[in-house]
Amino acid sequence: MSLGLRSRNPIIKLYDSNRFFRAAVQKLGFSRKGLAEFPSERFVEYLFVFKNLDASGGKALDVGSGISLFPLALASFGFEVTTIDLKSYAYSSLLPNIKPVVCDIRKTSFPDNHFDIITAVSTIEHIGLGRYGDTLDWQGDKKAVHELVRILKPGGVFFITLPFGKKGISYLHRVYDYDSLTDLLRGLTIVCESFFTQKGEIWIVTNSENIAGVDPTFYVQGIACVKAVKSKRHNPHF
Fold first, then answer.
1. pTM of the entire structure?
2. Which CATH number fits domain 55-230: 3.60.10.10, 3.10.20.880, 3.40.50.150, 3.40.50.1820?
3. Which residues are registered as beta bridge partners of 227?
């Protein structure tokens, strides 16, 4: 199954058959033709979230929003979106239901059990490495997820995407294998996962075993996309 350049690929079919998915793609600024011309892994990460998202609305937190259009798409579907980053979200003034918060995601002032949905698209792997102006902390990724689990409601959904393959770390990002990924998500139950690898100019669906040996330390060749749920009996001191 390929995601990218071919007009007959499953993403085009999903675009043609699913109104919610089609609207989400359009909110992100892409046409049908644009689906076949977008080479970045970010796009398949966004598609994973939208494909597995309950469109009923609620309080959503997007982590590491930067200048992404992704929070705009969430807000356009009725979610009350809070963005969090070390800098204020660039497009917060475009929609009334977007609230930018500037702080470190390792320690926030949000109350326990606050958000229905949290999204962290290609963000957690950078926390604590100093690349984006944060303080150095080798456990930064785990501290960030622990904090996000705290502020996620019991039964709430956490979407996370990150580099996957041979475990490693560089000044750019961390790379997770399956053991380190499941360890990172302690306190959550994984309900859906997809793995992708790049083949030429397209991203294709694969499995964790096929990309377990790739080394995306300096060039992302494999990614994991995960939907997880917080237990209704979650112990905040896991």
1. 0.82
2. 3.40.50.150
3. 159, 192
